[in-house]
């Protein structure tokens, strides 16, 4: 599992919850959206603020930045509303041996 960063045990990240991890100098937020796991760079593309301090909307599948209300689709990182127009980077997620893993694969 070279290059992969452990996030937590699968039972520690329930639907609607998120967890921040670091891959070197890259902050990553991992979101459990109704059992599907997604990872985005933990930086709003508009304000360069941590998305993990915001909230997840499970119905919309989005995460909202608390600074100016920019929202991003957790499935692909695209910006859903102003003031953000640029997507955030999406990262791979895998589950192995009862743990959630991600990595910065850029």
Automatic annotation (TrEMBL):
Protein name listed in UniProt: Non-heme iron oxygenase ferredoxin subunit
UniProt-listed PROSITE patterns: RIESKE
Domain Rieske: 5-102
CDD domains: Rieske_RO_ferredoxin (cd03528)
Keyword terms of this UniProt record: 2Fe-2S, Iron, Iron-sulfur, Metal-binding
The keyword Iron-sulfur appears for this protein: yes
């Amino acid at each position: 599992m070279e290059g992969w960063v452990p996030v937590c045990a699968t039972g520690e990240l329930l639907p609607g919850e998120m967890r921040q991890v670091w891959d070197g100098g890259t902050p990553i937020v991992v979101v459990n959206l109704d059992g599907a796991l997604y990872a985005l760079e933990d930086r709003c593309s508009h304000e360069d603020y941590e998305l993990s301090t915001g909230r997840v909307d499970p119905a919309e599948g989005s995460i909202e930045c608390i600074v100016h209300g920019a929202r991003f689709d957790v499935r692909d990182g695209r910006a859903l509303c102003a003031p953000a127009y640029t997507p955030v980077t999406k990262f791979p997620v895998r589950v192995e041996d009862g743990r959630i893993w991600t990595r910065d694969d850029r």
